[in-house]
Amino acid sequence: MKKFLLGLAIIGAVFTGCSSDDDNSSTTIGALTGTQNITVGETTTFASTTTGGTFVSGTPSVATVGASTGVITGVGAGTSIITYTVGSSSVTRTVTVTALGSGTITGTYTANQTFIEGNYTLQGIVKINSGVTLTFDAGSTITCNLTSGDNALVVLNGGRLVINGTATKPVVFTEVSGIPGSWGGIIMYGDAPILALGGVTTSTSEDGLALPYGGTNPTHNGGTLRYVRIEYAGKKLADGTKELNGFSFYSVGSGTVLENLVSYKGADDGFEFYGGTVSAINLVSYGNYDDTFDWQDGWQGQTNSNWYGYQTGKGNFGFEIEASSNNNTFFPKISNITMKRAAGTTPEVAGTIEIDAFQFKKEGNGEFTNVLINGFGDYVEGATTYNGTAVKIQDANTNTNQVNGSKIKFTNVTITNTTSNFAGAGSVSVAFPAGQFATTATATGATLTTGNWSTVNGVNLLQN
Question: Which pTM value belongs to this model?
Answer without folding.
Answer: 0.88
